[in-house]
Amino acid sequence: MGDGENDVEIEPIDYLIGVLERGKGKEKFYPFVAHSFEEEGRMWKEFLQWIAKKDDFILYHWHNYESTHFKKLAMRHGCSPGLWVKIESSLLDLLPIARRSIMFPTYGYSLKKVAPYCGFKWRQKDVSATESIAMYIAYTQTKDSSILDKILKYNEDDVIATRAVKDWMSSIKKK
C-alpha cells in the first residue's frame, strides 16, 4: 500500500479488437487498433461501422473479456441501441460450454492450455496477454511498427486459437 502521493491510477484502455471472419472457405483477420491512448474511441467506432455492415454473425470468444469490455467501450464511446442488441446477442463465450461438457486433459481451461490440445500452436513463444500490454505501451511511445506487428500477430493467433477450439468442440459427436 502506498501513501497515495506516488500511487498511479492507470485508466484501462482497449487498444485492439481482433476479428476473424470466416466464409466461403476463407478466413480473414481484421484488427481494429488504437494507435494511441486517445484513439480508443476511434477504434471502437471503426469496429462498429464494420460490424454494422454484417448481417448474420456470431462473435465467438473465450472467457468474459470481450463481453465485459465491449460493454465498457459502448458506455464510454457510444453505440446505437439497435447495434448494441445485435452485438450483445451475437457474443458466444465458449469457455462455459467447454467447462460444462468437456474434460480436457490439461491443467486448466485457459485458451493457452486448451487450444494446443485441439491442434493449435502459437507462432510466438515470447508473447502473452500481459506482455502484449507492455508492448502496446512501448508502441505508443516509439511508434515502432515491429512492436505493433508482434502485437497483431499475437492477437491473430488468439482469435485463430479460439476458432480452432470452437471447430474441435463442434466436431465431437454424441454417442
Strand content: 5-15%
How many strands, which pairing sense, and closed or not: the largest β-sheet?
2 strands, antiparallel
Low-confidence stretches: 1-9
Number of domains: 1
Helix/strand class: alpha+beta
C-alpha Rg, in Å?
Answer: 18 Å
Overall 3D geometry?
A: globular
Mean pLDDT: 92
The N- and C-terminal alpha carbons lie at a distance of 55 Å
Strand order within the widest sheet?
A: 1-2
Keywords:
4 strands; 7 helices; single chain; alpha+beta; two-stranded parallel ribbon; disordered N terminus; 175 residues
3D architecture notes:
This protein is of the alpha+beta class. Helix 1 crosses helix 2, helix 5 crosses helix 7 and helix 6 packs antiparallel against helix 7. The chain has one domain. The strands form two sheets. Strands 1-2 form a two-stranded antiparallel sheet. The longest helix has 27 residues. The chain is globular and about 50 Å long. The chain is built from seven helices and four strands; from the N terminus they run ββαβααβαααα.
